[in-house]
Every structure is written in structure tokens, then in C-alpha cells.
Amino acid sequence: MAARSLEIGAAGIRAARTIEILRTERGLSQRELAARVTALGRPMSNTMLSRIERAQRRCDIDDLLTLAQALRVPARALLQDSATC
Questions:
Q1: How confident is the model at residue 4 (pLDDT cuts 50, 70, 90)?
Q2: pLDDT score of 80 more than 50
Q3: Which of 22, 24, 39, 48 has its CA 20 to 30 A from that of 55?
Q4: Locate the HTH cro/C1-type domain: which residues (predicted)?
Q5: Predicted local confidence at residue 5, as pLDDT
């Protein structure tokens, strides 16, 4: 049986939008944020980050925690409605 991709739920879509909003508010390109994440020990290309932001790739908990650290926000901020960040 072929592997089935998991659908990205509401929390994943919310996190994706919030990551993009926070990244742009900080004046970071996808390449710059991906480099920060990689420097923190979680290898990430700008393509991977782009797919996360477009909700085409799941953001696992390790990605989420490292992205929050790279954006200098608490991890829970990535899970909240972007209007409250």
C-alpha cells in the first residue's frame, strides 16, 4: 500500500501563517531564517521553509521549537492566531 500524506490541520495552517508573518516583520528572507534554524542545529533549506509557510509541508515539533528560537519568540506564539502575535 502506498504511503498516504497526512493532511495539515488548522493548527498547522495557523503556525505556517504566523511563521511567515513573524519572519517578514523581522525583515528576514526565507534563506536567512532557514540559515538561522540550521545554525541552531536543525538543518533546514529555504525550500523546506517555503513549503512550511505555504502549508505544503508539515512542521514537526522539532521544526516548530527551532523556528520559534530562531524568530526569538516562545513556541506557543507560533500556535496562536497571527492577529494576537
A1: low
A2: yes
A3: 39
A4: 19-78
A5: 65
Grid coordinates of 37: 534554524
Res 15: pLDDT: 96
For the chain, the three-class secondary structure string (H helix, E strand, C coil) is: CCCCCCCCCHHHHHHHHHHHHHHHHCCCCHHHHHHHHHHCCCCCCHHHHHHHHCCCCCCCHHHHHHHHHHHCCCHHHHCCCHHHC
Contacts of 48 (CB under 8 A, 6+ apart): 34, 57
> Angle CA(82)–CA(74)–CA(39) in degrees, nearest 5?
105
Q: Which residue has the cell 529555504?
A: 46
Output the nine-digit C-alpha cell for 53: 509557510
